[in-house]
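Lab meeting, item 3. Inverse folding demo.
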């Protein structure tokens, strides 16, 4: 059985300054809201640190996503190496970069993921769709925080 190799790149612009956008990736409480979305989440945001999200897939099977931080440049970029497991079975291994750039009064991010998808497990289009939904949820995080700050 062969491994499927795939790469995708997603770009988003957020109406928040770069330090707030980067902070939403760096603060465990914030990241749990937009990325883990109800799953169990732990995070050590440091080079060599581990982030773990544990939940269940649509069929009720346990799923665990682990990311190791390999580089963190404040307000610049985050690099990770990750695995996704369904139960005890490895589904994917990937490397991801998230780059942050000022864009007027907002911030533009570029997320690129290179993945190896094992046969019969997750598919590249599923991962891209899920990651896109997470980035959309991040935009809502700024809207909610902005509304709270205005009150």
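The presenter then showed the designed sequence:
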């Amino acid at each position: 059985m062969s491994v499927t190799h795939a790469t995708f790149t997603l770009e988003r612009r957020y109406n928040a300054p770069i330090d707030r956008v980067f902070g939403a990736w760096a603060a465990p409480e914030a990241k749990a809201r937009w990325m883990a979305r109800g799953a169990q989440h732990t995070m050590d945001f440091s080079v060599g640190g581990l982030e773990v999200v544990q939940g269940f897939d649509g069929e009720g099977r346990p799923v665990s996503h682990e990311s190791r931080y390999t580089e963190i440049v404040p307000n610049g970029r985050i690099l990770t190496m990750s695995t996704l497991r369904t139960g005890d079975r490895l589904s994917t291994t990937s490397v991801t970069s998230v780059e942050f750039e000022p864009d007027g009064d907002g911030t533009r991010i570029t997320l690129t993921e290179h993945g190896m998808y094992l046969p019969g497990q997750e598919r590249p289009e599923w991962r891209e769709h899920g990651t896109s939904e997470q980035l959309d949820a991040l935009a809502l995080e700024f809207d909610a925080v902005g509304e709270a700050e205005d009150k």
